[in-house]
Amino acid sequence: xxxxxxxxxxxxxxxxxxxxxxxxxxxxxxxxxxxxxxxxxxxxxxxxxxxxxxxxxxxxxxxxxxxxxxxx
Length: 72
Description:
By secondary structure, the chain is mostly helical. It has helices at 5-26, 32-41, 43-71. The chain has three helices and no strands.
């Protein structure tokens, strides 16, 4: 079976983004990076930075990698 590396990395990025999203909803107090961002940047900005960097960005990058994999 010939599987493209873009496909594998894309799926892993999407799974990671979804995992971070679920973790933020279930137990945000256990995420050390989120707590550090809140301490440094404030409540609202810390949540925004973490949401973008650890949820939205990996999902979008994963979707783009999947698109590149199927397009090739």
